[in-house]
């Protein structure tokens, strides 16, 4: 049996998105991209080394997009423009959590999973993130923040 490995290709940040290129950009997707850009600027201002990747899993024709990986702190970053879990929409928290789980398999271990949200999550959503080992962060006044008091401002 041929033991293929996934192919990771580094690409410029902001050039590839986890959104169908053949569909019009929705308001929710535009909001998510703006949140991603805001977090990217925030991390770059702090000197973090940020990367973006295209991944072709071994034996698959799919191409996965890592929109943002913080190589300085080994953090996979996924953004979600809503605090809603999802339902029929691709835009919800459940979709973002699945994206984190899928992409993390291809990145260096240990990788911390970061879910950037538009606002502070309620205690139930925060608990869901905790049991999935995901750190939710959201924009604050001057920084992105989380519920972890031991963490420096993100």
Verbal overview:
By secondary structure, the protein is of the alpha/beta class. The protein is 26% helix and 24% strand. A 7-stranded mixed beta sheet has the order 1-2-3-4-5-6-7, with helices on both faces. A hairpin with a 7-residue loop joins strand 2 (50-56) and strand 3. The longest helix has 19 residues, at 27-45. The chain is globular, with a radius of gyration of 15 Å.
Beta-strand content bin: 15-25%
Shape: globular
By DSSP (H or I, 4+ residues per run), the number of helices equals 3
- Quaternary organization: single chain
Radius of gyration: 15 Å
Question: Main β-sheet: number of strands, strand sense, barrel status?
Answer: 7 strands, mixed
Determine the N-to-C terminus distance. Answer: 44 Å
Number of strand elements: 7
Order of helices and strands: EHEEEHEHEE
- Low-pLDDT segments, ≥5 res: none
Task: Describe what is shown at a glance.
The protein is of the alpha/beta class and 154 residues long.
Fold blueprint:
Layout: E1 7-11, H1 27-45, E2 50-56, E3 64-70, E4 75-79, H2 93-104, E5 112-116, H3 123-131, E6 134-139, E7 144-145
Parallel strand pairs: 4-5, 5-6
Antiparallel strand pairs: 1-2, 2-3, 3-4, 6-7
């Amino acid at each position: 049996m041929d033991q293929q490995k996934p192919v990771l290709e580094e690409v410029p940040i902001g050039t590839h998105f986890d959104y169908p290129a053949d569909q019009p950009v929705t308001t929710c997707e535009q909001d998510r991209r703006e949140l991603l850009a805001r977090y990217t600027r925030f991390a770059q201002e702090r000197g973090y080394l940020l990367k973006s990747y295209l991944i072709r899993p071994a034996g698959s024709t799919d191409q996965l997009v890592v929109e943002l990986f913080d190589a300085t702190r080994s953090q996979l970053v996924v953004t979600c423009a809503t605090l809603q879990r999802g339902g029929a929409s691709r835009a919800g928290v459940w979709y973002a959590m699945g994206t984190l789980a899928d992409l993390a398999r291809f990145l260096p271990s240990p990788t911390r999973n970061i879910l950037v949200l538009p606002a502070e999550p309620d205690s139930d959503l925060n608990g869901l993130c905790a049991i999935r080992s995901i750190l939710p962060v959201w924009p604050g006044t001057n920084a992105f923040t989380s519920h972890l008091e031991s963490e420096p401002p993100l």
